[in-house]
Design brief:
The chain is an alpha+beta fold and 255 residues long. It folds into two domains: 107 residues, Probable inorganic polyphosphate/atp-NAD kinase, domain 1 (Rossmann fold, 3-Layer(aba) Sandwich); 133 residues, Sandwich (Tumour Suppressor Smad4), CATH 2.60.200. The chain has five helices and 17 strands.
Length: 255
């Protein structure tokens, strides 16, 4: 990142992030994101996702500083030497998923997801799902609390909590993972190529309602969801040397 003269600071609503915003703006100045060479996001992983979605049309990369809890997508927070860190930062480029969800009333809900697209039961009964990949039915019936498709960048989040695999950042692979699968009881999910077109149909959708979610953008009462990689959208994320996504994903598997 050779040129970071103009910095735009964005902060979450927490007191810690707001204090950091005031301190860093005083030290380095603060420009509008449209004019910035780099955007610095102050908060946790949730705010980083929000920032990436909100600035995806802008050319400036995003550098996160952790003012939250986990901070998997963030760098360590330090006030001194920020311009030096930005100059040395390494860039990772990730593509989000595109979700097209059809609701019971015929309404179409579309959204992008940097981490994962998930389907979750929205009632007391387990969901019944049919899974089709590239036009071929792969699972006639999956009875579960839900299912998700995860990117490598999101594989340590909800996917990992549901016992899905951690994916190397450059693997061009997606994880299809079930949540609390009841039938088939021993199904542990699948690894799919990044180019895969995944369709999940909700069986008995009125009796067993399901909601769909793309990075907290939700649609209720869905009957089908199609998931593809949005390769035309690229998110540029900056990390301190030796602490990029590839290293973090490897390190997480030995924790």
């Amino acid at each position: 990142m050779p040129n970071a003269q103009k910095i735009a600071f964005l902060a979450s609503e927490t007191d810690v992030a707001r204090d950091a915003l005031r301190a860093l703006s005083t030290e380095y100045g603060n420009v509008d994101p449209i004019e910035a060479d780099v955007i610095v996001a102050l908060g946790g992983d949730g705010f980083m996702l929000q920032t990436l979605h909100g600035t995806q049309e802008l050319p400036a990369p995003v550098y996160g500083m952790n003012c939250g809890t986990v901070g998997f997508l963030m760098n360590e927070y330090q006030e001194p030497g920020l311009r030096t860190r930005l100059a040395a930062a390494q860039e990772e480029i990730i593509n989000p998923l595109h979700m097209k969800a059809i609701k019971e009333n015929g309404e179409v809900h579309e959204a992008l997801a940097i981490n994962e697209v998930s389907l979750l039961r929205a009632g007391p009964q387990a969901a019944r799902l049919k899974i089709t990949v590239d036009g071929r039915e792969r699972m006639e019936e999956l009875v579960c609390d839900g299912a998700l498709v995860s990117t490598p960048a999101g594989s340590t989040a909800y996917n990992y909590s549901a016992h899905g695999p951690i994916l190397p950042i450059g693997s061009d692979v997606l994880a299809l993972t079930a949540m609390s699968a009841f039938r088939p009881r021993r199904w542990r999910g699948a690894l799919l190529p990044k180019s895969a077109h995944v369709r999940i149909d909700v069986l008995q959708s009125q009796k067993r309602p399901v909601m769909a979610d793309a990075d907290s953008r939700s649609a209720g009462s869905v009957v089908s969801v199609e998931i593809t990689s949005a390769t035309h959208v690229s998110h540029r994320i900056l990390f301190d040397p030796g602490h990029g996504l590839e290293e973090r994903l490897i390190r997480e598997q030995f924790a």
